[in-house]
Write a structure and sequence with these properties.
This protein has helices at about 15-25, 40-50, 65-75, 90-95, 100-105, 115-130, 145-155, 165-180, 200-210, 235-240, 255-275, and strands spanning about 5-10, 30-35, 55, 80-85, 105-110, 135-140, 160-165, 190, 220-225, 245-250. By secondary structure, it is an alpha/beta fold. The chain folds into two domains: about 5-130, 3-Layer(aba) Sandwich (Rossmann fold); about 135-275, Response regulator (Rossmann fold), CATH 3.40.50.
Length: about 280
């Protein structure tokens, strides 16, 4: 797809379209979003513009969602566009759908999962097909964890620097801040709790917050922890008290990691926009 990236939202509910438009716009400000409430409006849009993603409900006031998809597939600009059907009865329709219907639909999304999940679904799909413009500082001594995490970062074209020791990460940040007028070009720091050297993950985060004076907005931090056992509890006080923005459990899930990274990057980008 060339030119501006576009998303078409087709939903008969005014409130649903408004919510999705606002939340996706906040997460992806460079994405051109067109929201339609009828099949007629949608057909006008698909004949005029090329879209990267189209989402549609099944029940529209002037047509059936599947009939609309057939018509979209006949338009030169969007015959190969990713189309997501958003519905509460996808299982029934999929079981009874013809092979042509199934092939025409890229993916089904259960409306019961809520609009936030749909927003993440759309953004993650966009992320798998385009460079994710993020710079990550990754600190982890585990060879296994590092292999898994760096493979995810590589697959998604995310630039990163990896260190095993907290002291190495701090030295890198100091050099980075020296050439960036006291700020850092790093968007997110990911650190494991257990590190090589004299400092653990908590102590590294505290050093970033206190010694380097990089707060939650200047350098968001994602802490990696192990899943607590049946008789254990997650130490939320320790995690957030150290200055962490968010945490993720290992083994890391790609979808979860990318979602959290995107959220944290937006935290920094919005702060930069408000404080140029």
């Amino acid at each position: 797809m060339s030119g501006k990236r576009r998303l078409l939202l087709i939903d008969s509910s005014d409130s649903a379209r408004t919510i999705l438009f606002k939340e996706i716009s906040a997460e992806a400000p460079d994405l051109d979003i067109i929201a339609c409430g009828t099949g007629k409006e949608a057909l006008t849009a698909v004949k005029r513009f090329e879209f990267e993603i189209i989402t549609t409900g099944i029940s529209l006031p002037d047509t059936d969602g599947y009939q609309l998809i057939d018509q979209i597939r006949q338009t030169p600009k969007n015959k190969d566009t990713a189309i997501f059907v958003v519905s509460g009865d996808t299982d029934t329709r999929v079981m009874g759908a013809s092979m042509e219907d199934t092939d025409a639909v890229t993916a089904y999304f259960d409306k019961a999962e809520g609009h936030k999940s749909l927003v993440n679904f759309i953004l993650n799909y966009l992320g798998t097909r385009n460079d994710f413009p993020v710079k990550v500082l990754y600190v982890d001594k585990s060879a296994t964890s590092t292999a898994i995490t760096t493979a995810i970062l590589d697959r998604n074209n995310i630039e990163y620097q990896h260190f095993r020791e907290a002291s190495e990460a701090l030295a890198f940040l100091r050099r980075d801040m020296a050439v960036n007028n006291g700020e850092t070009a790093i968007d997110v720091m990911i650190t494991d709790l257990t590190l090589s050297g004299d400092m653990n993950g908590f102590e590294l985060i505290q050093a970033v917050r206190n010694d380097l004076e990089l707060d939650y907005l200047a350098l968001p931090v994602l802490l990696m922890t192990i899943e607590p056992g049946e008789d254990e509890r997650t130490d939320f006080t320790g995690i957030f008290g150290a200055g962490t923005n968010d945490f993720i459990t290992k083994p890391v899930d790609e979808h979860d990691l990318l979602t959290r990274l995107r959220t944290l990057v937006n935290v920094k980008r919005q702060s930069e926009a408000l404080n140029p």
